[in-house]
Structures are given as C-alpha cells and as structure tokens.
C-alpha cells in the first residue's frame, strides 16, 4: 500500500516512519511512504506557502497554489488514489474507516495543513476531509501519522503475529483486555491467577469479561451488537456493580 504525504515538515513524517511496525512494513516492501515538501511546489524564491487572511483576523492561511501543484503532481501516475485532507473539521477517523480504506486498496494521499488554516478552495481537489479527533493539532502531520500507522497494522504481514491485529482494541468492537508479563509479583501486585492456570478456555472467558468491563467503564457507547454470550457477561457485570452500590462500596462525592 502506498501513502503519499504533502507537508511543509517532511522531517516529522520521515522520523516516525523509520521505527516500529511502520518501519518494518516499509523494509519488507508491503507499504511505501513518499513525502513531498509543499515548499518544492511554490513559485517564489522564498518558497512562501502562506499569506494573510482575506477579511482580516489573526494568523496566516496556507495558499492554494502549492497544494494544487503537489496534488496535480501525485496524480500524474494516474493510479487510483484517495486524497484526504487532514483537518479538525473532517469525518472522524476510526478503526472502521481504517478497515474500509484497506479494503478499498487504493493509494492514499495525506494532505497536511498548518497555521490557522488552509485556503478553502483546496477542498475542491480532495476526496474527503478527515479528522483524528475532536481537538485541534498544530498541523496535519500527527494526524497523517495516526492514519498511516493504524492502516499499516492491518496490512497482512505487517505484524509479526497475524493474530495481533485481530486482537487489537476496537477490532472486535470492544476495548482491549489487560496484559501481564514477568514478574509474577511486582511489589505485591500479582498477575491474576487465571492467567497462570494454563486453562485456555478459562483464560479466554476472563479476557472477554475484562474487555467488556473496560468497555463498560470507559466507552459504554461501544456496547452495541453484542452476542448472546457477551450480553450474559455484561448483565453479570452490571449486577455486580449494582450489588456494590447497594452495599455502599461507592461513596458519593460532595459537589
Ligand atoms: N489538523 C489539526 N487538527 C486536526 C485533527 N484533529 N485531525 C486532523 N487534522 C488536524
């Protein structure tokens, strides 16, 4: 899978992609990242990419021309590509979208803005605006890396163990279960007994229960379309919590 990144800070992308899962995927040749510096697509000698906003106001706005020229350049090879503009105003990027993108199996062009914003007219040349969350970053580079990393993990062969991506949080619609490794006892904090039992059925059940518990605590909005078995575990968890409330385990806070 090929990713092309348009940015004025190529070093940010270059640095990250050398490491970890993405770095390995690039070395194996199952993913490719090509970075274009938007300043190379400017026509003035100072390689200026921004200007004052029409209508006034604080900050600078990135000009359309470098984006337009860079976009025309990446389109020259006529290969199917999805052009994504990274911005907090875009469709929220989630695991489901990562899966959709990988299934589409097209190249991806990730367009990073900076400063106060970019000229609105750039949007006419992209397929979609994508946000990585409801917060404002100083630029699209981190968002582009989030997208590259999460998609590369899904490329067959990118992870050492093929099962790992399937086991990732969100892949099965739930948050992850807790993980432990040696030592068995760290300052009195013990690894749950069941994980030492060697009973794989029991371990799988414990992990499912923990995943449901984590999801109930932190992301109850994800508890949709549960199987009959998962629903049964969830009901048990809820009645345990209910019992604790009735026993007065949880104290009210004064506010
Ligand atoms: N650029 C700035 N903030 C962003 C966000 N939340 N998602 C994608 N691109 C961004």
UniProtKB/TrEMBL annotation:
The keyword S-adenosyl-L-methionine appears for this protein: yes
Keyword Nucleus carried by entry: no
GO MF: tRNA (guanine(37)-N1)-methyltransferase activity
Classification via CDD domains: TrmD-like
Known catalytic reactions: guanosine(37) in tRNA + S-adenosyl-L-methionine = N(1)-methylguanosine(37) in tRNA + S-adenosyl-L-homocysteine + H(+)
Subcellular location: Cytoplasm
Domain called tRNA methyltransferase TRMD/TRM10-type: residue spans: 1-224
Residues binding S-adenosyl-L-methionine: 113, 132-137
EC identifiers of the protein: 2.1.1.228
A GO-annotated cellular component: cytosol
Keywords: Cytoplasm, Methyltransferase, S-adenosyl-L-methionine, Transferase, tRNA processing
Principal place of residence: cytoplasm
One GO term of the biological process aspect: tRNA N1-guanine methylation
Self-association and partners: Homodimer.
Family designation: Belongs to the RNA methyltransferase TrmD family.
Primary role: Specifically methylates guanosine-37 in various tRNAs.
HAMAP family in the cross-refs: TrmD
Protein name stated in the entry: tRNA (guanine-N(1)-)-methyltransferase
């Amino acid at each position: 899978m090929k990713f092309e990144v348009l940015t004025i800070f190529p070093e940010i992308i270059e640095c990250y992609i050398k490491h970890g899962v993405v770095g390995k995927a690039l070395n194996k040749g199952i993913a490719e990242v090509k970075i274009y510096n938007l300043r190379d697509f400017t026509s003035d000698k100072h390689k200026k990419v921004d200007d004052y906003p029409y209508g006034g106001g604080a900050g600078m706005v990135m000009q359309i021309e470098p984006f337009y020229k860079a976009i025309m350049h990446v389109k020259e090879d006529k290969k199917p590509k999805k052009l994504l503009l990274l911005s907090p105003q875009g469709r929220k990027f989630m695991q489901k979208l990562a899966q959709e993108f990988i299934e589409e199996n097209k190249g991806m062009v990730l367009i990073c803005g900076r400063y106060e914003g970019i000229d609105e007219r750039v949007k006419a040349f992209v397929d979609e605006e994508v946000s990585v969350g409801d917060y404002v970053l100083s630029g699209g580079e981190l968002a582009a890396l989030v997208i590259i990393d999460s998609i590369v993990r899904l490329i067959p062969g990118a992870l050492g163990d093929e099962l790992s991506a399937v086991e990732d949080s969100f892949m099965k619609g739930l948050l992850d279960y807790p993980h432990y490794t040696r030592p068995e006892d760290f300052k009195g904090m013990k690894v749950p007994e069941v994980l030492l039992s060697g009973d794989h059925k029991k371990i799988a059940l414990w992990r499912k229960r923990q995943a449901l518990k984590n999801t109930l605590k932190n992301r109850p909005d994800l508890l949709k379309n549960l199987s009959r078995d998962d629903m049964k575990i969830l009901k048990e968890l809820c009645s345990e919590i209910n019992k604790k409330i009735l026993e007065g385990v949880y104290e009210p806070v004064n506010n």
